[in-house]
């Protein structure tokens, strides 16, 4: 029976699970291949510039990870589901720096913070449960959550983060202690995609509301240490130990090693660990050992400072280019840290359909509707990244993008002049 | 608002998803800490003996993975969701060796084969769908699948693997092209936990039945290359390209680097990739780069041979000790490869409750009911592992275990003599 071509398995139809029909592919991931065309300048990624990492630092950490027989017998072997104890201890040190007190037993290591999102969704979400997020929010979170078929409500933001007045209105509709309301997901620092940071008084108000209405807060903080201007903001986790806090090495060290973490009360972690056993048994022991030694043995703060200085220059270049080249109809955020700027165009511009023209012109971005559940909004917005390209390339890319936008606007300006569209 | 101790989040109740209530913890994972007590000899793990890996080989592979600026900019960075292309190409070479022809685009790298099980379950299983497995089967598969709430039917095995007559009976009850029947999961070579290999004629029959009744076959093959005696068996994937094949480096290289793979038609992989984007974005770029160089640059077959020679000695020691020490009421399998032996005791012995006595006596194993969906059978069986301990320790462990069993049997023999229990 070598020829079985007569039966093509009907996976697109009856065999595929209901949840998969709710999932959509990430435009960022899909653009991955397009972005490797050498003439294209990519503003669509979310990649840290790992070229800034000193080779000798990682070499040292790698050597330390496999230095002796005992180290190797651990680094090459299956590890505990919750992660290497020494690395969890390192995480508690990183947390201490930002004002969060945690014990190693309150830390579970995950395969990047992305796995943390999937595991928390798996633990908490039944179909039709209610999840609250910022609108726009991280599209990887939307992907992780939507596999479990929740009803995701996006709460609008302004320059101080999620609007607490609009959150409270939504919560009043949902009702107090509604068993279907599972959690609120927020990225309070230099949010992806908006670049906006949640103001201190809103953080306190959010904690109050979580107690008043009975929901868990998931605080995702991949960018908190990538700060260019302004002072440190107290994490939600430092205000309330019930908060589930997510961190990662991806932006302060390297995303090629998949190490993130969940910091949470044990009654949450025990469920997370159940889910993780089935999901992947354990993370990479080798990656976790290297991460331990990188943060223990190396002056990693120097490299973090290099990331910050470099990204500051690039953000400044992007803001300057936006000011110089973008049309007066466009507005954008001015992030004090992180990797992204959020651009809003007039409502009649569809950034999704415009992407093909941008690719043609040699620049990529992520259309704004990717960051809203079900693509329900953001069609006239886009996320642009400043962490990976040089200031010169960023300036060039923004000029190219401005030309693409300009030619769209020209068309519409004719309609507006004729009174057919509102300004 | 720093003191929030008044609200303990009710995660064990209404907030936790339905699926989590179906999950049980792995006794193997739970024993992880117990097994580190120095006086205990663990037969409960499934760990390859990575102490056999030559340090210089892995050092070379690690150095090659980060040898130059370009290599580092890839190894430290996010990778494609389907995995590093060079590593997927290496996998096609490993597949060629065992008679499976595949292109790199039919390979997706996963975080160990465990993630492959989770992703396939996520893609295919709706609650109450039917999944077929061997009985007993890999408990990590049961954990991965049960998170998606299927109805798992375990098909009994004998010394030639899954009983095709009993499978056919089950399929007749389920009916042809039943949309609820999603897939059959099998480990045809040196199965975990039984050590049994599926006979060639049963492999062909299984393929026929999959077409006749309309279900996908998932072939999990972590142990196929760990063969001590007998000839190579043709994989199901080589008989029928519609089969979804899973492999891993965990037993031929090192499980501390999390690299497994799914080989499948593109229409299956496209759904798997959707699920993987949300689950963890991508695997470890560094691990994948090291794996590439380990299989490209190093005489890895020599080390594989060392694994095989060492495990053969240990299996032989275990079989000899079983023969010498175990009571006549016990039977066990005689695997030609892999890591495990399956022991069956008289029906009145409960290996679950006996585990405490075994721990007391300084030996661990995995109770047999862990390997059946819902613990529906196997209560008088156990899985014992021979890949990690020395022949001397294995002999000692089997003697200890025999004493524990003997003291259980003595009690029951009194009842049997009195006619109160059947022999």
Largest interface: A-B, 96 and 97 residues
Alpha-beta classification of chain A: alpha/beta
Q: How would you characterize the largest beta sheet of chain A? A: 8 strands, mixed
Give the CA-based shape of chain A.
Answer: globular
Given as residue ranges, the uncertain stretches of chain A (5+ residues, pLDDT < 50) are: 1-13
Task: Assign a percent range to the helix content of chain A.
Answer: 40-55%
Q: What number is the mean pLDDT of chain A?
A: 93
What would you say this structure looks like, in words?
2 copies of one chain form a homodimer. By secondary structure, the first copy, chain A, is of the alpha/beta class. Chain A is 44% helix and 14% strand. Chain A is built from 15 helices and 14 strands. An 8-stranded mixed β-sheet of chain A has the order 2-9-8-7-6-3-4-5, with helices on both faces. In chain A, strands 10-11-14-13 form a 4-stranded antiparallel β-sheet. In chain A, helix 5 crosses helix 12 and helix 13 runs parallel beside helix 15. The longest helix of chain A is centred in the last third of the chain and has 27 residues. Chain A is globular and about 75 Å long. At the A-B interface, helix 1, helix 3, helix 4, helix 6 and helix 7 of A face helix 1, helix 3, helix 4, helix 6 and helix 7 of B.
